Amino acid sequence: MIIITGASKGIGKYLCDEYSKKDFDIYGIYNSTFIESSYPKTKFSKLNTTNYDEILAWFQEVKPYLKDITLINCAGINYNSFAHKADVRKWKEVIDVNLIGTFNMINVLLPFMREQSFGRIINFGSVVAELPSPGISAYAASKSALYGMAKSIAVENATKGITINNVNLGYSELGMISEVPEKFLEDIKKRIPSNKLCKPSDIFNTIEYLRNTEYVNGAEININGGII
Ligand SMILES: NC(=O)c1ccc[n+]([C@@H]2O[C@H](COP(=O)([O-])OP(=O)(O)OC[C@H]3O[C@@H](n4cnc5c(N)ncnc54)[C@H](OP(=O)(O)O)[C@@H]3O)[C@@H](O)[C@H]2O)c1
């Protein structure tokens, strides 16, 4: 079964739709954008992933229905500001959602995965952790942190049939890219060796590869058209 955070928009919504069409049991998590399911085996819950108690209460409720979990941590936010002008609360919010929220989900689900001797955890990192860009220090910090976090969790759980990997996206056709003004988007495309944004199917195929593979663990998979 699949648990997807950020299931209401962009990449998370796309993955949720793809797995729903393939008749998977799915728990989709959203925060503020209400979403209704048109598939009987797909259930949505409104949860703020930064709120540990909310996640824990949700887990207790759904635990009897969980099995062979793939957790796809798609929930994410961005805050654009030069560091010297940044609002520290907004800066910290990015760390809270992108890093702490991701860890909350992992922390709550890991004991169950260990009991089951199976688990797949896939986090969404970003090319910007390695590619310097102005105004995104919070986002870059939050995504860089996933690097070490995943590696540590991978070695802790490798004997339990559990893998954790980061998918480091470049620039996708879906999701938060819609916030980038057209003028900057053209510049971005020119910097990508393939001159193209990432197709949703390339993300899906990578997730499927990680879902179906046990020996890839603690890895960084770049889906970036060769931009680094
Ligand atoms: N799109 C890209 O080109 C790109 C590139 C690199 C990395 N990524 C990463 O890929 C992931 C998906 O990105 P996207 O572009 O699809 O983003 P998006 O379209 O902006 O969607 C973000 C999702 O995160 C959810 N979310 C935000 N805060 C939350 C919270 N506190 N609790 C629960 N859910 C929360 C949102 O739910 P609500 O709407 O319900 O609030 C929404 O479903 C993110 O981690 C992003 O950093 C994306």
Question: What's the short story on this structure?
Answer:
By secondary structure, the protein is of the alpha/beta class. The chain has helices at 10-21, 52-62, 88-116, 137-157, 182-191, 200-211, and strands at residues 2-5, 26-30, 42-46, 70-73, 119-126, 162-169, 220-223. The radius of gyration is 17 Å and the shape is globular.
Could you explain how this protein is built, in words?
It contains six helices and seven strands, in the order E-H-E-E-H-E-H-E-H-E-H-H-E. The protein has a seven-stranded parallel β-sheet, sandwiched between helices. Helix 3 links the parallel strand 4 and strand 5. Helix 2 packs parallel to helix 3 and helix 3 runs parallel beside helix 4.
Strands, total number: 7
Low-confidence stretches: none
Describe the oligomeric state of these chains in a short phrase.
single chain
Helical coverage, percent range: 40-55%
Q: Sheet bearing the most strands, described?
A: 7 strands, parallel
Percentage of residues in DSSP E strands: 15-25%
| N-to-C SSE string, H for helix and E for strand | EHEEHEHEHEHHE
Q: Name the average pLDDT.
A: 96
How large is the radius of gyration?
Answer: 17 Å
| CATH top level label | Alpha Beta
- In CATH terms, the superfamily is NAD(P)-binding Rossmann-like Domain
Under CATH, the topology is which? Answer: Rossmann fold
Bound small molecules, which ones? NADP nicotinamide-adenine-dinucleotide phosphate
Described by the principal axes of the CA atoms, the overall outline is globular
